[in-house]
Amino acid sequence: MKETLQAILDEASEKIEQSDALDKLNDVRVNFLGKKGQLTSVLKGMKDVAPEDRPKVGQMVNEARAKIETMMEETKTRLEKELREAKMAAEVIDVTLPAKKANVGHRHPNTIALEEVERIFIGMGYEVVEGPEVEYADYNFTKLNIPEDHPARDEQDTFFITDSILLRSQTSPVQARTMEQGKLPIRMIAPGRVFRSDEVDATHSPSFHQIEGLVIDKHITFADLKGTLEEFAKELFGPETKTKFRPHHFPFTEPSAEVDVSCFKCGGKGCRFCKGSGWIEILGCGMVHPHVLEMCGIDPEEYTGFAFGVGLERIALLKYEIDDMRLLYENDYRFLKQF
């Protein structure tokens, strides 16, 4: 029995010395001291030992267990120390190094301009309404009093998917859809992406954004339109801003007008920004054509209204004095971080 215990002790000592990781050391513990370990097997064989020899054999087994546990504890302490030192060496922090900067994103110039416009009109009691970008020609053209032979329906100007489906060229279809619902009065703006077959240059893009507004109620006049747009211009460009209405033609409004604002750079005196005129064109507008009201199920004898439309990119270009529309879409961080 003594020779058996000595052999177990020698083998355990060799295994413990060869253990270079804590998991391997645990395997040694299980192999020698576990429920099915070698020392446990010796203790289970005590029934075959003569009664008078059992105390001596038991003492020998306990001494062997104590030696194995001592060797394992010493090895465990050494391995944990080595592991801790290696970890500390790998995680050294040089407090003299500059800290890593957290690059936090922010809103795009278009988004900033859109939120400003929405704030102004929501403050006037308008609601923001959105619609589909893939639209029916009936809503994009017909219900807006644009006949089939109108140049805007040409394929070189509009992206057609089928004869009756297209990528909307304006957000006016949202106005037509809202009027069709028959929930009057209406005070709304319709911002969104639109598509036209334009070549990319400093002032054009095949994909851009519009904000169109619509008011339908009883006794609405052109004076209401002028007052609304004057207030909008002052809120957007400053309280000293003046507006000028020039006669124009749009199929879906009558009468129609283009709106200019006094140059906010020179105060209307004339400068490079306004090309010496003192005025800057910002949007188109007009009274909703009676035929448009009829096609959308509204009685033009009882209700009148006005509509207007402004390019979101145009507002951003003017407000932030950007001279090339392409800068808004190139995602150049050096440009975008200025806003």
Automatic annotation (TrEMBL):
Please list the reactions this protein catalyses.
tRNA(Phe) + L-phenylalanine + ATP = L-phenylalanyl-tRNA(Phe) + AMP + diphosphate + H(+)
Entry keywords, A to Z: Aminoacyl-tRNA synthetase, ATP-binding, Cytoplasm, Ligase, Magnesium, Metal-binding, Nucleotide-binding, Protein biosynthesis
Q: Which cofactor does it need?
A: Mg(2+)
Highest taxon, organism lineage: Bacteria
Q: Does the keyword section mention Nucleotide-binding?
A: yes
The record's PANTHER family line, in alphabetical order, gives:
PHENYLALANINE--TRNA LIGASE, MITOCHONDRIAL (PTHR11538:SF41), PHENYLALANYL-TRNA SYNTHETASE (PTHR11538)
- Spell out the subunit comment: Tetramer of two alpha and two beta subunits.
Give the protein's recorded name.
Phenylalanine--tRNA ligase alpha subunit
What's the source species for this entry? Blautia faecicola
> What gene name is given for the protein in this entry?
pheS
